[in-house]
Design a protein that fits this description.
46 residues; mainly alpha
Length: 46
């Protein structure tokens, strides 16, 4: 491998990891909103 190829591969690896983190973050945000919507009526009952 040339050093350029290694750097390019590392960049792709980093991009993949960032993509996974962003997807996970988005999923957690959506879940959080759903959780709040479900929790709201329950809190009013108590």
């Amino acid at each position: 491998f040339s050093s350029d190829e290694t750097q390019i591969k590392m960049l792709f690896q980093m991009q993949e990891n960032v993509g996974i983190i962003i997807l996970t973050f988005n999923a957690l945000q959506k879940w959080h909103v759903i959780y709040l919507k479900l929790a709201m009526p329950y809190n009013k009952l108590n």
